[in-house]
Amino acid sequence: MSRTVAIHVALATVALAACGGKKRTPPPPPPVDAAMEVGPVVHDLGSRPPALDEPHPPMPREVRATLLEPGAAPRAVRRYALVAGPERTLTVRAEVTIHRFQLGAWTGPTALPAVTDGFAYVVAPTAAGATLALRGLPGTVAADAPATAAATDELTARWRALLERRRVTAALDASGRLADARFEDDPGAARPDVELATDELHQRLLAVMVPWPAEPIGVGARWRVVTLVRIGGAYVKQTAIYQLTALDGARATVAVELTRLAERQLLALDGLPAGAEAELIGLVRTQVGTVTVDLGAPLPVAGRFETTLSSHAQFRAGAAPPLDEVADDRAVLTLSGG
User: Fold this and answer.
1) How many CA atoms lie within 13 A of 5 on its CB side?
2) Dist CA 321 CA 278 (whole Å)
3) What is the DSSP letter of 197?
4) Residue 123 CB-half CA count within 13 A
5) CA separation for the pair 239, 224 (Å, rounded)
6) Strands (E), 184-264
7) Sign (positive/negative) of CA torsion 105, 108, 109, 112?
8) What is the Cα–Cα distance from 262 to 237, expressed in whole angstroms?
9) Model confidence over 108-118: pLDDT tens digits?
10) Separation between Cα atoms, residue 86 and residue 123, nearest integer Å
11) Among residues 86, 87, 269, 313, which one has the fewest Cβ atoms lying within 10 Å of its Cβ?
């Protein structure tokens, strides 16, 4: 059995059965990744590029940061105060509605039980900025009825496997950029899922953290940050536009419009039958909302996003007809910090 985490790019994971011409049994309910969700069906994006050769290029990589509008006076260079303090938390509650095409038929829209996960973290100043020490909080699902018991494990499977209860340290600069993340329980990076876990950490934080521009800004300022990120093996371009809408002492309110786009690419997925291949035809994820940040803490203290995810994947094996899977999902994400 294989997962299409790469296909739905960490928004949802769809279990697949082997597609080598044998009868397929229906997959279990698709698990949800609480960090993202999704919109309109993405169709063919042109000729298929070859698969990337190993080793994979290092990810994520910020490509460009552009100040679009400086905002009103007074303006100042905004930075996080990277000082030692008590442990803080950031939780993300995802209320997801999925709409899927699998096995030749559409299912849903179906509202799933809300999923909550997140991080506890501590900032430790260094000569170059700070170290951010994170630990993954236990994931929870708002599901008590017997009918949802089977889905409970699926909803938190990716979080539990890669980030739950794990401790990570990363370099952090005052503008809110992370680098050199490493797992303290895997100092030699020997686990086979180390790349998946590292990518998952970065994609989640890139979806919620606010990176400040280099230039002085005031209320009304807008800036754009373009980042290449790898999620579940798929290469994605994230374009985020931020607008500073209010300042209240050390607290800032920032509106965010974020788009993640993955074009057509072959995917290396574990568990595919011999001779089978998985291809991402396309993916678009949007996230629009507002976060409140405290300049004394690098992760938001509050926020709300509406997200959409549209993805189309195709699976082929020998002479069997290709199997198409489409996701057209939506979610509301609520961020809480403490």
Assistant:
1) 30
2) 13
3) H
4) 22
5) 7
6) 222-231, 234-248, 251-262
7) negative
8) 6
9) 898 888 999 99
10) 8
11) 86
For 67, the token pair is 């100040």
CB 126 within 8 A of CB 166: no
Which residue(s) pair with 107 in the sheet? 100
Burial class (CB in 10 A: 0-12, 13-18, 19+), 144: exposed
SS3 helix, strand, coil % of the chain, rounded to 5? Answer: 10, 50, 40
Q: Which two tokens stand for residue 185?
A: 């329980």
Parallel, antiparallel, or unpaired for β 88-102 and 115-126? antiparallel
d(C-alpha 101, C-alpha 326), whole Å:
5
Q: Look up residue 158 and give its two tokens.
A: 């990716």
What is this structure's pTM? 0.84
For residue range 43-83, what is the model confidence (pLDDT) as tens digits? 333 444 444 454 568 899 999 999 999 999 999 999 999 99
